[in-house]
Design brief:
alpha/beta, D-Maltodextrin-Binding Protein, domain 2, 5-stranded mixed sheet, 15 helices, 10 strands, about 20% strand, globular
Length: about 325
C-alpha cells in the first residue's frame, strides 16, 4: 500500500470512527435531557464532513445556547439515513444535499429547508469538489469524458447530475458517460489502476487526490451554477408546524453559525479537527466552501431542471414548499 492509499484509508477510518463516537455520545439519556439547564434539547442529524463545520462552531461558540437550545449532534453516514430520521422524528433537523431533498419531496416526503448549508466557491479549479483524471490521462476537459467511465460515491444524485452538466457545458454528450458507484476513499487507487477513467470527489478527498498529483479537469458545481447551493439544513413540515417558535430560534442560531464560519476560515479548520481525525496536513490544504445563510433559489431551479433532463425525477418539481423559512 503506497503513502496515498494509506492516507486515504486513515481518513476514511477517522471519519467512520468520528461518526461512531459522535453517535454514541450524542444520543443522550432521558436524565441528560432534564439536566440541560432549562434549554430545549434539539437533535440534529449531520455527516462528519467539512460542510457541517458551521453547526459545530455554532455549538462551540454558544450561538444555540443563547437561543435557548441544547443542540445534540448525531453523526450519520449520509443523507439517505438522515432524511428518514427527520421524517420519523428521530432527528428534529438534518443536513443533506439538495438533490436528495428534491427527490424526497418528489416521493411525497414533506421536507422543508431552514437555511442553506454550503455553496460552491464559484471558482474553477478551486472548489470544494471536482472531476479528476490521472496525471498522464489524454483527457483535457469534460467533453473528453464521452464514452469513458467516471466514479461517483452515489448514483443518480448530485455527483453524476452535476458532472453530466460539466460534460454538456464543454460540448460533450453526457449520455455517453458511464458512471459507476465507488466510495471516495477508493478513488485514487481506481485512478492509478485504470479501473475508471475519472472520478468525482469532494473535500477532504479532493485535496488528497490533488496531493497525489492527479489532474482536475472540471469543477462540476461551478459548471452547474456559479452560485450553486449544494446542501441545506432541513426539517419536516410537521415538526415545523408543531413548534414554529423553536424553529425560528434554531434558524437564527444556524444563520449566526454560518456567518461566523464564513468570516472565520481559521476557526473552520480548527473545528474540523475536533469532530474528525483528518490529518492536519490535509486540513491545511482543504478548499473551504462558502457558507451563506440563504439558499440561491435560481441555482436550485437549475439543478431541478437537470434532474428532469437526466431522469432523476419525471417532471419539474414545485420548489416553493421546499424553502420553508427561506421564503
Amino acid at each position: 500500500m503506497n503513502r496515498l492509499e494509506s492516507l486515504m484509508r486513515r481518513t476514511l477510518a477517522a471519519l467512520t470512527t468520528g461518526a461512531a463516537l459522535l453517535a454514541a455520545t450524542a444520543c443522550g439519556s432521558p436524565e441528560a435531557d432534564s439536566d440541560s439547564g432549562g434549554l430545549t434539547t434539539v437533535t440534529a442529524g449531520v455527516i462528519p464532513i467539512v460542510d457541517v463545520a458551521p453547526v459545530y462552531l455554532g455549538v462551540d461558540q454558544g450561538f444555540f445556547e443563547e437561543h435557548g437550545i441544547d443542540l445534540r449532534l448525531e453523526s450519520s453516514s449520509g443523507g439517505a439515513a438522515i432524511v428518514p430520521g427527520v421524517v420519523s422524528g428521530e432527528f428534529d433537523l438534518g443536513f443533506s444535499n439538495l438533490v436528495s431533498l428534491i427527490v424526497a419531496r418528489d416521493q411525497g416526503l414533506p421536507l422543508t429547508t431552514l437555511t442553506n448549508g454550503v455553496t460552491t466557491t464559484g471558482e474553477q479549479g478551486a472548489d470544494l469538489g471536482g472531476v479528476f483524471v490521472p496525471e498522464d490521462s489524454p483527457v483535457q476537459d469534460a467533453s473528453d469524458l464521452e464514452g469513458l467511465t467516471v466514479a461517483s460515491n452515489n448514483l443518480k444524485n448530485i455527483g453524476d447530475t452535476t458532472v453530466r452538466q460539466s460534460v454538456r457545458a464543454a460540448g460533450g454528450d453526457p449520455a455517453s458517460v458511464e458512471f459507476i458507484e465507488l466510495p471516495f476513499p477508493d478513488m485514487p487507487a481506481a485512478l492509478d489502476s485504470g479501473q475508471v477513467d475519472a472520478v468525482w470527489a469532494v473535500e477532504p478527498f479532493a485535496s488528497i487526490i490533488r496531493q497525489a498529483g492527479h489532474r482536475e479537469i472540471a469543477s462540476n458545481f461551478v459548471d452547474t451554477h456559479p452560485e450553486l447551493s449544494v446542501a441545506a439544513y432541513f426539517t419536516s413540515e410537521q415538526r415545523l408546524a408543531e413548534d414554529p417558535e423553536l424553529f425560528a430560534d434554531i434558524t437564527a442560531a444556524l444563520e449566526e453559525s454560518l456567518a461566523y464560519a464564513q468570516d472565520n476560515p481559521d476557526e473552520v479548520r480548527r473545528i474540523i479537527s475536533t469532530y474528525t481525525e483528518i490529518e492536519q496536513s490535509v486540513i491545511d490544504e482543504l478548499v473551504l466552501p462558502r457558507f451563506p445563510a440563504d439558499i440561491n433559489q435560481e441555482s436550485v431551479r437549475t439543478l431541478a431542471e437537470l434532474m428532469v433532463t437526466d431522469g432523476l425525477i419525471e417532471s419539474e418539481p414545485e420548489l416553493d414548499a421546499l424553502y420553508g423559512s427561506q421564503e
